[in-house]
Amino acid sequence: MQTPTNSHGNFDSRHRIHLGDAAELMAGIPAMLGFHPHRSMVLIAVKDGGATVGPTMRHDLVLAGEHLDRRAADGSRATQEMLDVIGYLAGYCAAENIPAVMAVFVDDRLDPVARGPHLLDVEALVSELVGTLNTLGVQLFAALAAPEIADAAPWWSLCGPRRHGLMSDPASSPLTVARVLDGYSVRRCRGELAATIAPGPESTVLAVATEIARRERGTTRSRADELSSVLAYLARAPYDTELEPADLARIAIAIGHVHIRDALLALTLGDDAGYVEEFWANVCRVLPRRERAIAATLVAFSAYVRGDGPMARIAIDAALDADGTHRLAQLLDRSLTAGAGPELVREVAESGFACARDCGVRLPGDPFGRR
Fold first, then answer.
1. Residue 19: its pLDDT value, please?
2. Exposed / middle / buried, residue 112 (Cβ in 10 Å: 0-12, 13-18, 19+)
3. Interior CA angle at 288 toward 286 and 289, to 5°?
4. Farthest-apart Cα atoms in the chain, separation
5. pLDDT of 7
6. Residue 14: per-residue pLDDT
7. What does the alpha-carbon distance between residue 176 and residue 295 come to, in Å, rounded to a whole number?
8. Are 18 and 50 in contact (CB under 8 A)?
C-alpha cells in the first residue's frame, strides 16, 4: 500500500477559499499537492464553515470496477486497500483535531451520466468515509467528483444537495499563484514531480563516483572548509547550475559528514530555502547511491519543513531506495507516515545552527551571532 501523502499546513494559513465556490476549491488542489492528481482520493481539511483550508491528503484511488473478486469481504463495493486508507486518514484527522474534511475523487473513469461500476464504487467509498469519520467525531463536509482537474472540467457532488458545474482554471487559482510566488512549481502529474530527482545519466554518476574515490584517499580538509565550500556552491546555485564531476565530488564528500549534513538542515529555514531545495534535487540525480541517499534526504527534509508532503514522500522513497539504512530518511519516513506536522522537523532544522558553529562556521540567520 502506498503511504498517503499529506500537504501539511495549519488552519491559520494565508490561503483561504470559500467552500461555496467548489469550482475554485477544486482548481486549487494541484497547488495544494504540488502536482495534478490522477485516479486519486483527496481529502482537504476545512473549518469555519469551509472558509479555511488546512492539510491536504491524497491516495491512489483503487477501485474494484467490474472485478468482483477485488472487493472487501464485508460485502462493500470498496476494496480492502481503500478501507484501510480511509481508516488511517480518519485516524489522522481525529489525532490532529481536524473538525471536517472535503473529499474529492479525481478519476477519468467517472461519468455522472453513465453510472458505471467505478462511480458506484466511489459512492460506496463516500458511505464508508461518512461512517468512519463520524465514529471519530470528524464531519464529511462535502464529497465531489471530477474526471480531471482542468479548466472547464465537469464536477458534481456525490452526497448532500445535488450540485454540479465546470471547474475554474487551475493555472489562475489563488493557491497556484501563491505557490509560484513562493518559488515552487505545480507539476502535471506525480510522475513528473518524481522525475525532478530521478537518477541522471550513468556516465555522469560514474564520473562523480571516480572523483569521490580519488579525493577521499587524500582529503585532509577541515569541517569548516568542507562546510564553507558547500555554502559557496549553494550561493552560486541560482546563477550557475552547471557543476563538474570534481565539484559534485567535493559536495558529496562534505555532506557525508553528519555534522556538515545536519548544519545544512538549518538552511531550510532561510529566505533562500527554495533555491537550496532545488540545488539538492539537481545534485542527488548525479551522485552514487550512498551519497544520493544523503542528498535526497536533504530534499525530503526541505520539503517537509515547508509542508510539501508529496515531495517529501517522493524524496524519502528515493533516499531509502538508494540506502535503506539511512537513519535520517528512516526518521522522516516514520514521521510522515504518522502524520507529524512540519513543526517537528523545524525543531531539528534549528539545531543545525549549533552544528555549523561546532564546525567553525556561522550560518545566515544564526540566532546566536553573525558569520
1. 42
2. middle
3. 120
4. 72
5. 55
6. 38
7. 27
8. yes
Q: What single string gives the DSSP state of each residue in 328-348? A: HHHHHHHHHHTT--HHHHHHH
Q: At what angle do helices 327-337 and 342-358 cross, to 10 degrees?
A: 160
Q: Are 45 and 95 in contact (CB under 8 A)?
A: no
The residue count of the chain comes to 371
Q: What is the pLDDT of residues 125-170, one digit of tens each?
A: 999 999 999 999 999 999 999 999 999 999 999 988 889 999 988 8
**DSSP characters for 215-273?**
HHTT----HHHHHHHHHHHHHHTTT-----HHHHHHHHHHHTSHHHHHHHGGGGGSTTH
| Residue that the C-alpha cell 489562475 belongs to | 172
Q: Which residue has the cell 532545488?
A: 278
What's the rounded Cα separation, in Å, for the pair 15 and 18?
10
CA torsion 307→309→311→314, rounded to 10°?
Answer: 150
The radius of gyration computed from the CA coordinates of the chain, to the nearest angstrom, equals: 22
CA gap 234, 41 in Å, rounded: 38
Q: In what order do the strands lie in the sheet with 5-7?
A: 5-7, 52-60, 40-47, 100-106, 139-146, 154-157, 164-166
Give the pLDDT confidence score for residue 11 in this predicted structure: 42
